[in-house]
Automatic annotation (TrEMBL):
Residues 246-276 are annotated as: Disordered. It comes from the Bacteria. Pfam families: Amidase_2. This is Peptidoglycan recognition family protein. Residues 50-204 form the Peptidoglycan recognition protein family domain. PROSITE patterns: TAT. Residues 62-210 form the N-acetylmuramoyl-L-alanine amidase domain. Gene3D superfamilies: Peptidoglycan recognition protein-like (3.40.80.10). Belongs to the N-acetylmuramoyl-L-alanine amidase 2 family. PANTHER family: PEPTIDOGLYCAN RECOGNITION PROTEIN, PEPTIDOGLYCAN-RECOGNITION PROTEIN LC-RELATED. It comes from Marinactinospora rubrisoli.
């Protein structure tokens, strides 16, 4: 992540007071209005800012049942890898096909109602909506019940990052887009990046998101915090809420030698989720 901005000074972003609902003011199918809030768009710079492509744009098939929307926003952002090939096709068309193939797999093989994750980022840095209703819910500060982290779907928003990062590293384009996406979500939901950003393995026994990407999460938290620091003046105007320490996930053992199968990144639905 050497191309990223310098980390914030020690402690600068810890216990950051953050804001709930800010993004709602922006509207549009952008990164929740990140452009309006001053977040840079290093990858997708342009008149449309940093776009999140919606389901219609990537050609989603109809869902079986409309996703359940919860009033309370998520407490954590879960970083996944797709356990697919580390493609060198960075085009938007490839990214759209990735979203379609994940949805196909989740609906056919897993028999889920729709694609499981909320957001998908390709190795080219293309950010896409996942489960139906995700973008409208984020804009309202609500939460679509997904299928990506077993027993924790009611309070976590899941980002699928294209690739397998057990030994390889993500592309700079993907990492930049992940920083922007996490910053957007932190603003939308009033989350502190140093506490809110976790890996799938923090909740479930899985190798996801791979040792390499998982090892980058501290830097990701720092980079997102630095991005948010640019907004400090605006954020300070809008109230504050921290995540309770009790909401911090536990850390189960990570299995070694887990098989890598496309779209099988570990437990996506658990018993607790089914009781919702
Ligand atoms: Zn995962």
């Amino acid at each position: 992540m050497s191309t990223h901005e310098q980390p914030a000074a020690p402690g600068q972003c810890s216990r950051r007071s953050v804001v709930r609902g800010t993004v709602a003011v922006a509207g549009g199918v952008l990164l929740g209005g990140a452009v309006d809030l001053g977040l840079a768009a290093p990858v997708h710079a342009g008149p449309a800012g940093f776009p999140v492509y919606n389901r219609k744009e990537w050609g989603a098939r109809p869902y079986r049942r409309r996703a359940q929307v919860l009033d309370n926003g998520p407490t954590h952002i879960v970083v996944h890898h797709t356990a697919t090939a580390n493609s060198t096709n960075y085009s938007k068309e490839h990214a759209f096909e990735l979203s379609r193939s994940i949805q196909r797999y989740h609906m056919r093989a897993n028999r889920w109602d729709d694609t499981g994750q909320h957001l998908t980022i390709s190795r080219g840095g293309v950010v896409m909506e996942g489960r139906n209703g995700t973008l409208p819910a984020i804009r309202r500060g609500g939460h679509v019940l997904g299928a990506h982290t077993a027993n924790h779907n009611s309070h976590t928003i899941g980002i699928e990052n294209e690739g397998t990062y057990t030994s390889a590293l993500p592309t700079t384009e993907l990492l930049n887009a992940l920083v922007e996406t996490c910053a957007w979500l932190c603003v939308a939901y009033g989350l502190n990046p140093s506490l809110a950003i976790v890996g799938h393995r923090d909740y479930n026994a899985t190798a996801c998101p791979g040792d390499q990407l998982y090892a980058m999460l501290p830097q990701l938290r720092t980079d997102v915090g630095a991005r948010l620091a640019r907004l400090e003046t605006r954020l300070a105007q809008l109230g504050a809420e921290d995540i309770a320490e009790e909401q911090w996930p536990s850390y189960p053992d990570v299995p070694t030698g887990e098989r890598s199968v496309p779209f099988e990144h570990g437990p996506g639905i658990g018993h607790d989720d089914l009781t919702l």
